[in-house]
Amino acid sequence: MGELTIGAFARASRLSPKALRLYDELGLLTPARVDGTTGYRYYVEAQLPRARLVAWLRRVGMPLARIGEVCDLYETDPPAAGLVIGAYWARVETETAARRDLVTFLVDQLSGKPAGKGVDEMSDMRMRYAAGTDRGMVRPVNQDTAYAGARLLAVADGFGADGARASGAAVDALVALEESVRGADVLNGLADAVDRVNREGSSGESGTTLTAMLWTGSRLALVHVGDTRAYLLRDGEVSRITHDHTLVQSMIDAGSLSAEEAMSHPQRALLLRALDGTADHARPDLRLHDVVPGDRYLLCSDGLFTVVGPDDIRHVLSTAAEPADAVSELIALALAEGGPDNVACAVADAVTV
User: Fold this and answer.
1) Residue 51 and residue 31: Cα distance in Å, rounded?
2) Among 205, 236, 212, which residue's Cα sits nearest to residue 226?
3) What is the mean pLDDT of residues 214-233?
4) How many CB atoms lie within 10 A of CB 329?
5) Model confidence at 296, in pLDDT bands (50, 70, 90)?
6) What local confidence, expressed as pLDDT, does residue 121 receive?
7) Alpha carbon separation from 16 to 19, 28, 47, 291, 317 (Å, rounded)
8) What are the φ and ψ backbone dihedral angles of 149, each rounded to 5 degrees?
9) How far apart are the first and last CA of the chain?
């Protein structure tokens, strides 16, 4: 098979010679031959499919390290590579939506619209709330923490020998924000608190997941890491507004596992993100969520949703008269299913007064 100069290969692959030299240095696209005297790089036509895939993935903004993984997979299992690309783009769209919400919030803040004025100047919408936890029927200690206040809902699920302390520290750090953070500082405050908890309150052997929502006066600021969850009941329909940071969820995103299969997967509890003292694992999702009167929010640990089905959760959220009633009924359902894990719930209603 004939060799192609770097210039000819660049034209055929739609990559510049400069990019080809960079990808060679990174081991992403190695030339077929490098002349020992001149240092000229030569390629072969069989390398064009990989090079063209690199070009397309760069156009969609995929990081170079991820591109290398996809290209290697493409050479052995093209359909699997396609699933990985699809999962990557689904994640991009989710993160873009979160950034769009943040941009809207910042525009309102800087232009003086009501959404940026903080809770003291907001409309007459308020939160009605309740929270509760239970050790369950099997676990020797309760490592879940739940909190509900006028501005904050939070649920944390600790793990490891010191998990109870880790979950408590995570929630305590956010409770401190209820009175100290306003307006555009909300997301920064949440991010700083999570970073501090990860550095000071987790050890690698022990740690916690965390899902929390802080009321700004017109929106809820969400922080989420791990597999605790947030749900919304609106107009009779329940939707999940968090994305699990777990191995099985990544497999569902990639299309290699169904949601039903995930329920019995042997690694269903394996976390990809958590507050465990390591920077790589502690990247939280941060976003702003619009609220309308009549919304009901549920934050819960996996001790609830792994044993209580979505139809039962929707029924309780739709029929319970007060947040405290919903919390009690949901915990009772988990216990009725054997209570194999600690369970924590926090429920809040958006109401006008």
Assistant:
1) 11
2) 212
3) 92
4) 19
5) very high
6) 37
7) 5, 14, 15, 48, 57
8) -140, -175
9) 78
**Tens of pLDDT, residues 76-129:** 998 888 888 888 887 777 777 667 766 766 676 666 655 443 333 345 788 999
Angle subtended at Cα 345 by Cα 341 and Cα 349, rounded to the nearest 5 degrees: 165
d(CA 316, CA 306): 16
Residue 261 — φ and ψ, nearest 5°? -65, -35
Q: How confident is the model at residue 246 (pLDDT cuts 50, 70, 90)?
A: confident
Q: Judge contact between 288 and 105, C-beta under 8 A.
A: yes
How are beta strands 3-5 and 41-44 bridged, if at all? antiparallel
pLDDT level of residue 183 (50, 70, 90 thresholds): low
- Distance from C-alpha of 126 to C-alpha of 164, rounded to nearest angstrom: 31
The two three-digit tokens of residue 209, written as one number: 């997941």
